[in-house]
Amino acid sequence: MPSFRTLNQIAGPIILANLATPLLGFVDVAVIGQLGEAHLLGGLALATMVFSFLFWGFGFLRMGTTALVANAVGAENLVSTRQILVRVLSLAAVIGTLIWLIQLPLSQVIWRLTDGSVLVETTADTYFAVRIWGAPLNLLFIGISGFLLGMGRARAVLALQLLLNFTNIALDVVFVLVWHRGVSGVAEATVWAEGLGVLFGLYLVRRELLGLTFIEAHRALIDAGAWRELLRVNRDIMVRTLCLIFAFAWFTNQGAIFGDQVLAANLVLMQFIAFAAFFIDGYANAAEVIIGRARGALDPHRVRAVIATSLRVGWVAGLIMSLLYLPIIPALLPLIAKDTLVVQQASEFMLWAVLTPLLSSSAYLLDGLFIGALASKAMRNAMIQSLALFLLSWWVLQPLANHGLWAAMTLFYAARALTLWRARSALFP
Q1: What is the 3-state secondary structure (H, E, C) of 276-316?
Q2: CA-to-CA distance for 244 and 188, rounded, in angstroms?
Q3: Which residues touch 171 (CB under 8 Å, ≥6 apart)?
Q4: Which of 140, 153, 151 lies closest to 71, judged by CA?
Q5: Rounded to the nearest 5°, which phi and psi values hold at 114?
Q6: Where are the alpha helices (DSSP H) in 114-223?
Q7: pLDDT value of residue 113
Q8: CA atoms within 13 Å, Cβ hemisphere of 410
Q9: Which of 46, 18, 48, 30 is nearest to 268 (CA)?
Q10: Sign (positive/negative) of CA torsion 405, 272, 286, 230?
């Protein structure tokens, strides 16, 4: 039976790795915030939303890979783990290259669908034109991360993530505050950091790649059944992820309607929510690995124990984050944004960001459990239902303006947890 200690031992390095990502988000916002212009923050918010669709939409390359590898490890099939790596890297390279090739028509469609001001959309397009060059690198990076996590190599994931994000942070400072390249500099920093991250990631999995025989590699690429299983799991996770991204994109776009200051304030507060999400997701990722191995070993008693332990840890982590945010958020807001109107707006809506870690923790942990158990269809259906409730809630709460928007997002988190809990029977082998 997995104990709190076991879960924490696995989750510790993952949490540190995860927190490097929202830390980078804070730095991106902070360096642009120092320029003192709300439309630059608004443009960064829209551009971030766009790349959430493009890259998070293919997050199955991390989540599906972790689940499949963990199940293979539980079944003690190491040849299968190496073949999964080959298939995932091939798929990531193909998808990333296709995204890069269609960048021009893609950008034209995107800016027709957004509702930001002319200055905001021009800024976002500047970021897009640079950041899109890193599409193949980004997808290869998350595929490698998923493989390492599924193998239980949490410390390697930590090293990889720290290299990526701290390189990115250092380049942010140089490109924006030293070389004055603005939003374009933020995008350039990310692309260069991702290139270095992929090289280091390939170094970390060199043993598995070099250990492949020609026959294993050939079978990995031509095994139709394995490809169908990979694509089935990834299809459901992709639909789930796109629904999740759509909810956040809708949130961002609706905030843009209320003006550049509100859009920028929402972006600043979302950095705190992202930080809490990545912290709690460390436990979700650990639960994903443990339940995947329990499923692979066909052990329902271990599965039941993982569920109970994971949810309790998630609730405690969410409560701690919410309590810490009460004094931390008001102290940091003036340091992140120089525009006093943006700080005032963020202060008005701050309570929603304080409550979110506690209210969202169950959704995060259940997501990890369903991914690790390869219960992708049930998770997909739960997310579709939750998205429908979110949009309905926003339609009802529109008279409350931005407070209504935040309330609808809070209900979205609650719906995700409830719909997944109702489908929990899918977790068992």
Answers
A1: HHHHHHHHHHHHHHHHHHHHHCCCHHHHHHHHHHHHHHHHH
A2: 27
A3: 188, 189, 192, 193
A4: 151
A5: -95, 165
A6: 118-131, 135-150, 154-172, 182-204, 206-211, 214-222
A7: 57
A8: 17
A9: 30
A10: positive
What one-letter code names the amino acid at 129? Answer: A
The residue type found at 154 is: A
The pLDDT value given to residue 324: 94
Residue-level pLDDT at 402: 92
Residue 337 DSSP label:
-
Count of helices and strands (H, E) across the chain: 18, 0
d(Cα 64, Cα 241) in Å, to the nearest integer?
A: 12
State the residue range of the domain holding 371: 4-427
Buried b (16+ CB within 10 A) or exposed e, 129-152: ebbbbbbbbbbbbbbbbbbbbbbb
Domain count, the chain: 1
- Per residue in 187-221, pLDDT (tens digit) is 888 899 999 999 999 999 998 888 877 887 787 78
Q: What residues in the chain have per-residue pLDDT under 50?
A: none
Sorted by sequence, the CB contacts under 8 Å of residue 170 that are 6+ apart come out as none
> Letter for the amino acid at 296?
G
Instruction: Please tell me the pTM assigned to this model.
Output: 0.72
Rg, Å, the chain Cα set: 21
Q: Both tokens of residue 247? A: 């909810």
In this structure, what are the phi and psi dihedrals at residue 31, rounded to the nearest 5 degrees?
A: -70, -35
N-term to C-term CA, the chain: 16
3-state SS string over 388-414?
HHHHHHHHHHHHHHHHHHHHHHHHHHH
In degrees and rounded to multiples of 5, residue 333 shows phi and psi of: -55, -50
Token pair for 231: 């694509």
Tokens found for residue 254 = 């609706």
Q: Strands, E, within 6-65: which ranges?
A: none
Within 10 Å of residue 86's Cβ, how many Cβ atoms?
Answer: 18
**CA dihedral of residues 207, 213, 214, 220 (deg, nearest 10):** -80
- Categorise residue 77: left if φ over 0, alpha if ψ from -120 to 50, beta otherwise: beta
Q: 3-class DSSP state for residue 1?
A: coil
Distance CA 125, CA 40 (A): 11
Angstrom distance (rounded) from CA 74 to CA 59: 23
Residue type, 160: L
- Of 366, 313, 295, residue with least CA distance to 12: 313
Count of beta carbons in the 10 Å neighbourhood of residue 225: 7
Which residue, chain included where needed, has tokens 């963990």? 70
Output the six-digit token pair for 272. Answer: 């705190």
Residue type, 341: L
Distance separating alpha carbons of residues 186 and 51, to the nearest angstrom: 13
